[in-house]
């Protein structure tokens, strides 16, 4: 519903129906919670679905997983642009949610279990039903495109619920962030548990119902959003631009064509990697050319610092995102998950990150405030360095625990400690990342640099798949090649990546004074 600006402002100031915040925040909280429930519920199961149902080898499974998560991070850039210029958040979120529901329904159509077969040359192979395999890839494409239309747009409405000087704004985003992580935690716990105990169809189907609930919640709560989810210009959206079809219809058609393109891309993971390599190099070149030819010295220094920190984030996320792939497989095969006589499905351990965020985020917020009051709050580069070191320490702690396990089965506590340290590292780096981009980028290219941040996250997820491949050891459908010890492979890979992260963090810490100087007063 559209409300006049003056009225909307007055109503927003007195709207305190949700813990002292606007009622609209509750709508957005619930919508995003259910969307994250569906996404993380599906994500917790995906690597097991690939290795245990379709019997992909670990090396191929983690690459498919990495390609999927990479595209999930890239499509919101396009979805956000279309919503800002034409669709508005309500239509974009609705279209994205419909695609997500369709994608999760498709994932629930699992088809027959793949089979090991003897080839003509006497070699063992795997036979998969091509029809159901294509349904699987199409479902991934629907989810990727749906996230692109939905994810980028809800956060923008949160800020619009408040007047510019409303002191509740930061608290509102904190509540919204809790909704994100509550959904992520419950999705991994519930959908993960159901998927691995009842059946894949049940886990994926439950994720789909979660998204459907979120869509219903969003549609019913439009009146509380003060018109901020509406298209910027209805006349432009309804304009006939091709064959008598409106711009809005053409955007939806383009969305479905995007599904088809992604459907093909997700089946050719190597090509996705090549595209990301080339596009990333072009973007980096464009930034450097702009910085040295179009900027003042102060602007150039800030742009170079921002670019350097964005590149650093690639290493962080490439290692952090082992959670859904190699660490998930490790939990299933090499971790003792029996607690009080009950074996916990490996997928449910994906909830630990979200749980620790909910528990630690308020403590970190208080800590930064206290340090700031004393003039001792770390600079952004130092926070990035701390994040990398905590990330690496998490892997090294797990390696220590695995090395103490004589039977190759690691006590659960060591994996829990890894997720604790990784979450602490995330809280040092992730919340300040987007703020850093907006503060250090030249005003006229802030939007482009935000896109670069998401591109870096997408690229990191693909690299994560490459790193996870190192842990595969020739596994096929969960069976390791003869003579291969899984625990030794994990120890070797995680030792190397742990030392790499700690070392990179130390280097970044040492050069942080230089980087801070290049920020020219921006904290």
Briefly summarize what is shown.
This protein has helices at residues 5-14, 23-53, 58-87, 89-108, 130-160, 169-197, 200-220, 234-238, 247-265, 269-293, 297-320, 326-334, 351-373, 380-403, 412-440, 446-469, 486-518; strands spanning 115-118, 124-127, 240-242, 245-246, 335-336, 338-339, 342-343, 410-411.
List keywords for this structure.
about 525 residues; mainly alpha; Growth Hormone, Chain: A; two-stranded antiparallel ribbon; two-stranded antiparallel sheet; 17 helices; disordered N terminus
Structural description of this entry:
- It is a single chain.
- The chain has 523 residues and is mainly α.
- The chain folds into two domains: 256 residues, Growth Hormone, Chain: A, CATH 1.20.1250; 248 residues, MFS general substrate transporter like domains (Growth Hormone, Chain: A, Up-down Bundle).
- It is 74% helix and 4% strand.
- It contains 17 helices and eight strands.
- The strands form four sheets. It has a two-stranded antiparallel sheet with strand order 1-2.
- Strand 1 and strand 2 form a beta hairpin.
- Helix 14 packs antiparallel against helix 17.
- The longest helix has 33 residues.
- The relative contact order is 0.14.
How is the secondary structure organized here?
Layout: H1 5-14, H2 23-53, H3 58-87, H4 89-108, E1 115-118, E2 124-127, H5 130-160, H6 169-197, H7 200-220, H8 234-238, E3 240-242, E4 245-246, H9 247-265, H10 269-293, H11 297-320, H12 326-334, E5 335-336, E6 338-339, E7 342-343, H13 351-373, H14 380-403, E8 410-411, H15 412-440, H16 446-469, H17 486-518
Parallel strand pairs: 5-8
Antiparallel strand pairs: 1-2, 3-4, 6-7
Helix pairs in contact: 2-3, 2-5, 2-6, 2-7, 3-4, 3-5, 3-9, 3-16, 4-5, 4-7, 5-9, 6-7, 6-13, 10-11, 10-16, 11-14, 11-15, 11-16, 11-17, 13-15, 14-15, 14-17, 15-16
């Amino acid at each position: 519903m559209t409300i006049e600006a003056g009225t909307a402002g007055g109503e927003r100031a007195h709207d305190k129906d949700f813990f002292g915040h606007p009622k609209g925040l509750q709508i957005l909280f619930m919508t995003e919670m259910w969307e994250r429930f569906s996404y993380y519920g599906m994500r917790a199961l995906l690597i097991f679905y690939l290795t245990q149902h379709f019997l992909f080898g670990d090396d191929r499974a983690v690459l498919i997983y990495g390609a999927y998560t990479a595209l999930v991070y890239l499509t919101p850039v396009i979805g956000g642009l279309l919503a800002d210029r034409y669709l508005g958040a309500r239509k974009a979120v609705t279209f994205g949610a419909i695609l997500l529901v369709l994608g999760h329904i498709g994932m629930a159509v699992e088809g027959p279990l793949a089979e090991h077969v003897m080839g003509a040359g006497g070699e063992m192979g795997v036979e998969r039903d091509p029809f159901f395999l294509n349904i699987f890839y199409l479902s991934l494409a629907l989810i990727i495109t749906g996230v692109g239309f939905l994810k980028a747009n809800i956060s923008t409405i949160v800020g619009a619920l408040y007047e510019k000087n409303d002191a509740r704004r930061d608290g509102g985003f904190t509540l919204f962030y809790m909704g994100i992580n509550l959904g992520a935690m419950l999705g991994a716990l519930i959908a993960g548990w159901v998927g691995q105990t009842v059946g894949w169809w049940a886990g994926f189907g439950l994720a789909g119902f979660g998204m459907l609930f979120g869509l219903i919640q969003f549609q019913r709560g439009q009146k509380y959003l003060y018109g901020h989810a509406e298209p910027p210009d209805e006349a432009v959206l309804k304009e006939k631009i091709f064959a008598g079809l409106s711009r809005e219809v053409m955007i939806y058609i383009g969305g479905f064509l995007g599904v088809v393109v992604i459907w093909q891309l997700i089946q050719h993971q190597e090509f996705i990697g090549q595209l990301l390599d080339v596009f990333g190099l072009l973007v980096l070149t464009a930034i450097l050319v702009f910085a040295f030819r179009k900027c003042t010295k102060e602007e150039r220094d800030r742009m170079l610092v921002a670019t350097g920190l964005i590149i650093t984030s690639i290493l962080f996320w490439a290692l952090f995102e082992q959670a859904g792939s190699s660490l998930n497989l490790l939990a299933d095969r090499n971790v003792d998950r029996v607690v009080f006589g009950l074996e916990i499905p490996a997928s449910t351990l994906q909830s630990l990150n979200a749980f620790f965020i909910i528990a630690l985020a308020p403590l970190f917020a208080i800590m930064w405030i206290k340090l700031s009051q004393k003039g001792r709050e770390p600079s952004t580069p130092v926070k990035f360095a701390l994040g990398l070191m905590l990330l690496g320490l998490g892997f090294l702690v797990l390696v220590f625990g695995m090395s103490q396990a004589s039977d190759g089965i690691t006590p659960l506590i060591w994996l829990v400690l890894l997720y604790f340290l990784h979450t602490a590292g995330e809280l040092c780096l992730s919340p300040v990342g987007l703020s850093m981009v907006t503060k250090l980028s030249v005003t006229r290219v802030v939007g482009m640099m935000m896109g670069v941040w998401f591109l870096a996250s997408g690229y990191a997820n693909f690299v994560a798949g490459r790193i996870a491949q190192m842990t595969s050891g020739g596994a096929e459908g969960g069976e390791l090649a003869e003579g291969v010890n899984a625990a030794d492979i994990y120890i070797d890979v995680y030792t190397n990546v742990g030392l790499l992260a700690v070392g990179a963090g130390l280097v970044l810490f040492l050069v942080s004074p230089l980087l801070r100087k290049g920020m020219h007063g921006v904290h």
